[in-house]
Write the structure tokens for this entry.
Amino acid sequence: MRRVIAALREITKAYPGIVACRKVSVELLAGEIHALVGENGAGKTTLVKILGGLLRPDTGWMELDGRAVHFRNPSAAKRAGVGVVHQAGSLIETMTVAENLALGTSGRPRSDGDRVGLWTSAVGGERLVRELSPRERRLVEIEKCLQGGARVLVLDEPTATLAPQESEALFQTLRAIADTGCAIVVVSHKLPEVLTHADRFTVLRKGQVVARLARNQVSGERLVQLLTSGPEGVDVSMRPTEDRASAATAKTPLLRISALCTASNRSTEAPLQGVDLVLDRGEVVSLAGRPGSGLATLLPILYGDCSAVAAGCVKWFDASGKDSKDPPRAIGVIPADRLRAGLVGEFNIAENLALRRRDLLGWRHALSRRKALHAFAAQLMRRFGIEPPDQRMKVSALSGGNLQKVLLARELDYAQELLVAVSPTAGLDAATTAVVRQALRKKAAGGTCVVVLSDDLDELVSLADRIVVFSRGRVITELTGDQLTAESLGLALAEVSFPTGVCQEQRCQCAD
Amino acid sequence: MSVRRLIPILWFTLALALALGGVSLVLSLLGRRPDVTIGAILGGAFGSEFGLTETLLRLVPILLCALAAAIPAESGQFNIGGEGQLHLGAIGAVAGAMLGSGHPPAIALSLMVAGAIIAGAAWGAIPAGLRAGLGINEALISLFLNYVAIHFLQYLVHGPWKDPASLGWPMSPTLPEILWLKPLGSSRLHAGVFVVVGLAIGLIWLIQLTRLGFELRAVGRSPRTSTTVHIPVRSYLFGSMVLGGALAGVAGFYEIAAVQHRLRPEISPGFGYSGFLVAWMCRGRLWLLLPFSLLVAGLVSSTENLQITTGLPSATAEIAQGLLLLLILLGTPVVSRLERRQAIRRALEAASE
């Protein structure tokens, strides 16, 4: 029997309106990879934050080597030997690998390459972090934790942005680290991965532990069943192929971008260098690219803001096929930062739903107009199954899933020609993910062009009719049909099979 | 539900009591009996017809300056420039009167109002334009412009607009009596108080219930979201600040036309700052502007009168105002933490059922 290094005992943590964890106990064994699995809202991230000292539990305690410990802050957790690799990452982009590692330990500045460490030696200590691939970044973060003395290593969704091949390699590294006697915790929603690699599972549902399993006790179906509370669960791996077939008929163009170049001076984002892109009505197009690939430069152009365009042409087409330079009026937007760029946290649900229908409010008859507004909000909330039936609930108090539903309801109702969704299902549980994907596909089937951007390869693959892959400000390939798999997208993003610099010569030769 | 609604009100009451306690302490240190003095202050503010009319007289500029800060605050901006905008309003009103001399009084009065509104709005437009156009901090600019405005007024009354008959006092000539707003009965109070209270109710209604106010509040609470949904953010930033300046300018007009009848350096004993304090105390709860303005107006007028009759230190009102604001601001995080803890407790109870 392996030794228990760390344990959570009877942890309870509540937020206003929701209990995130209720009497959760988890034991972490030396030399094992322990997977925390559960839908979103199950309490995984809360547990990670408690482990890392970012949150203090309302009741319950942690044990390290059999002794109760209470972390007042993240550095206390770090001193005690708990290292956390958060989903967002904590590296400084403009510093080298070695400098980041030096910051992680004790602030003693070390010369480059002096202490690159075991797991990052292949990465290279003198490279800037912003030049690293997602997998290399993870390695640096892990190395940083280990050099800080971590014996318990916690990783929150470490493979969300990785291609399958990279994930495999990362798990092999984790296995090697576990073999040195560390306890490793992996939070993931990618079940096949953790099924293959983890030794032990704790399954959470709605803040409670529903099962503790060892690797040999569990099958994929059983795990899905546990996660989604059995019969009412939703098929997680849905790929709406029937929809796709119908969408293939009768395309009319919405937007044609040709030989587009931008004079971007943003240091982290590549300028566009001769991008050709056609968007048709009634299709779902995923745009894929690593951070810095130029997608962030393209985004405002899709919203109709051409101020960054240096050369090339952007043509919009109306339903009859007539072209114009002006974008259509109703472009729906689902931004990545939902609460800050999409919603007003201090407003209630009805007010947020009204942000696109401000014509419902008026100067005069304000009170009777409010009635119309509430009727409109009630109708949208019914249509999208937004759960708290109270329109007067502040949006900032809603769960992530309902937050996204409010935003989705508003933008789907508003969007006519084009809907741009950035990471539309990030952080949502399987059931809500299914609702969102279905709604987006339905919108496309109704003749709207839906554009999806995301870091999550599965999300890009499961929604799209085709995927356009960007790198360094260029379109490097387009995936359709049988190529719509996470594997081929991962390969494309890794630029394995596609030489760069293809479209260099095609200069912008548009008439206007 | 009901308890949660009550928490802020309870806190306001407690803050008021604590502020009174603080003032009592100061008064005892000065060798005065706090119970008698505070009784005199409250009685002086609201207990007699004379006191009440004097209080309402101060309500006019304080409520206007409170609106001048509260409306930009709804768009997420700080207008600390109410004092300067009031000064400019007074200058504009006098300029309007000069321009209108020789014309019928209706025209001259209209010119005074227009002059006050334009001057106040223009003074507000400086920080507004710098903020909306270049992103320069409007709080600092509006605050600094107060000093410019005060000194500009002093230059005028010491120099070009000085009354030759004033025996060397820095003041402009008295306006012709035909341009004075008539007082109500035997008091100094004028009908402007009804206009201003009506204006306040109208503006609060506009902000809480109409499309314009909805968009303004959206800009203040989430500028990025407002951009996403095509609300003209810059127009609202600029417009609300200019409107604030105009309202403070109107306060300057009333001080000239109804109270002082001439330009003097002592045009305002800090009405602009009192208004800003009121706006801060009411943050996000616009309907509170009316009762809080009334309270502060009572404090200001009563202590001013007691200063003359009993020699009460003139700083008493300022100490009371300052303590009140401080306690309410201190209470805000306490209140929200209490509310949050209650929400957590409810969640735990609901889960254990």
About this structure: Residues 72-270 of chain B form one domain. The CA atoms of residues 141 and 353 of chain B lie 56 Å apart.
